[in-house]
Predict the structure.
Amino acid sequence: MRRLLNLALLVLLVSLAASAEETIKIGGIGPLSAPGTVVGGIAMKFAMELAVQDVNNWGGVLGKPLELVFADTEGLPERGAAMAERLITKDKVVAIVGEYHSSVGLAVAEVCHKYGIPVLFAETWADAITETGYMEVFRIAPASSMVSIAWADWMKAVGVKRVVLIYETTDYGIGRMETEKQLLAERGIEVVATFGVEIGSTDFTPILMRIKAMDPPPDVVSAASVTGETSYNLERQMVEMGIAPTPQTIGIANQVAIQPEFWESVPGGNYFVFNQVGLPPAKWNFITRHVARAYYEHFHTKPPSYVLESYDAVWIMADAIERAGTTDPKALIEALERTDIVLSQGRYWFEYGSHNPLPEDVPKFMWHQWPNPATLIIQYFEPNQSWEEAAVLWPPSYQTHGVLYIVPGTKP
Amino acid sequence: MGVHPFVICWLIFAGPLWAAIGAGWLSRVYHRKGLERASARFVGGLGGGAFGPVFLVPVHFLTPDLRKWQWKAGTGAALVLELFLLFALLQPQNLCVTNANYVVNQILNGLSIGFIYALMGVGLTLIYSVQGIVNFAHGQFYMLGGYISYYFLNSVGDVNPLLGIPIAGLFTAILGGLFERLFLRPMHLGRVERPSEYAILMTFGFGFLLEYTTLGVVGPFPKMVTQPYVNLPRLEIFHFLILPNRWVAGCVGVVLFLALIYFLYRTWWGKALRAVSMNKMAASIAGINPLSMNTTAFSIGTLLVGMAGAALIPIFSWVPGVGAKASTRCYVVTVLGGLGSVPGALLGGLILGVVEALGAGCYPDPTKGAAYRDVFGLIVFALVLLLKPTGLFGRKV
């Protein structure tokens, strides 16, 4: 009996080893426990598993099935580094995809650089991730400066001259205000005043009265760098005091204006402009709809951009392995640099890399960076509108109503 | 950076140095002569700051009765005027110097908010004067009042948000009364070993309980009553900007304040409350049960602050964390006016509202003005504590 059991175990082990040899492993990373953003990690893991399933239904890569080994980074850089190390040395993954938090991404990038294993980041925004210029590091999420650049370019296109920036006095708010100030100055737009507000304040009338007393009124009042419910109070008071949005002044809201609560907190918030990363449903293709359907069945809501990014990241990696014809890291990186594939967020390619060195005048974060993530500038033009129905103003390639700006009181 | 010669002159002939000398010196002189020293310190500080030796020397010899309010108001007004002139000299381009409309607008706005601050603070002061404890859950009752009004208005549909105010007040009053009856009464019955620590821990703990229970029930997303008091977001009359909804909230504050004063001075219960706050023993001899007065005071205190919350939820968006910031304001208001003084809370609220608005509106660096907003209130708070530790209307402890 005992001998029989041993034999059975042996057979099981051999078959396991054989099946392990037959798959090609890629590592997935994301936060599945606090202090990481757990909802983000769960959604990303779901999208990656869906993509692996789809790749295998397609026939796998190099004639073998693709296997995902997912590791929980907990939103902690040291944990992320340890997990990347484990995936590479113990699980022998050929590449790593995913991650939600920038701080973790930076740590993982170092590990991947050490072992020469390619990593494709799906949702880490810090400019520094791609600024290092490592051969191994790729990104399909936007770099945070791309959002500020989108704002500045749009303002220039609209013909704005004088801008007021309101920002929260946190690392995020101050950093963003300084970047935007510089970008606007480069485009010949004057920042007439900046106002720092403490996060959690409720009454902004004293500073809004300062703006009200400006003669002539500014062309733009931006609350984009004030986050959360603080921005709702600020935007509501901007409307109540008749500062923006008005026919003279463009009002810019924080990106949380996309939430349904916006209309409850800012009932007069029609004609506010705000930004959103990710495609509007009007621009979805059949792959996006496929992901959205699967995601909806599971989570009963529309997929956020990082779900689409995670799904696409797995496919981009599978495509690169297939084109490289091998899992050798060097060949894989070379294949990744020449990526040109249409997936759920549209066409992916990496403009700058060893195949096309970064010119002096292009920002350093554009290295191995997908140049076209949808950093949309959107404007409401009906009260209680959902963001999917609102007008996309910028970039021109995503415009839905063919206009750069809707003057309050008019319709596109 | 060069210092303006006028500033040097001011620092030599008046200013903080003379204020300190005035406060210290006059209080000693008055004490030596057997006169009241608290008001001598207060007026001495203000007068010294405004006029320097020109004020201090004659007062030193004549020792007039400084307890009259004219002295306090006169020297206070002179100092404020002097500081404004100095400010105008240093910042000739500042909006607060060049644009009178702007200043009036800021003051009006500060007053409208000030009435609500007063309403928030007066509940705290009432509880303190009767029970001798500080209610550290005060801000959380304010938060709760807002939510009650929100859910009430949402359930009944399209009605004026004024209706939510009494409902919210009723709820917070009942909750406050129950809390007092169950958790604070043992302290008054002598069943607790260290009553003052007990009261701090109890109210603090209850505040946490309220905040996190609310967070669990309503979630972290901001809520707000969309229906305004009046369907008129702003009124502009001769460049004066008036936000009618804020004034409605402010008027609610005034009306409730008048009602409170009527209650305290004209009804038996109010008189009994005041009696207990003056002397518990004497009041119980006269047939007033101090225990039920404790519960009444706590109920009325939480009623008022709950109503203040309900009055503001159509104006500011609401998250479970709003209570913490409101608590700080309540402490400043009550200490400014004097702990235990009802008219003091009104004055304290108005002063805080106007100081915050003018501070944020006039601070030379506009980038920082709003971020420093809470600081301006706290500066006045610190000054009052330095010059008159019992607050503007405080009674002698």
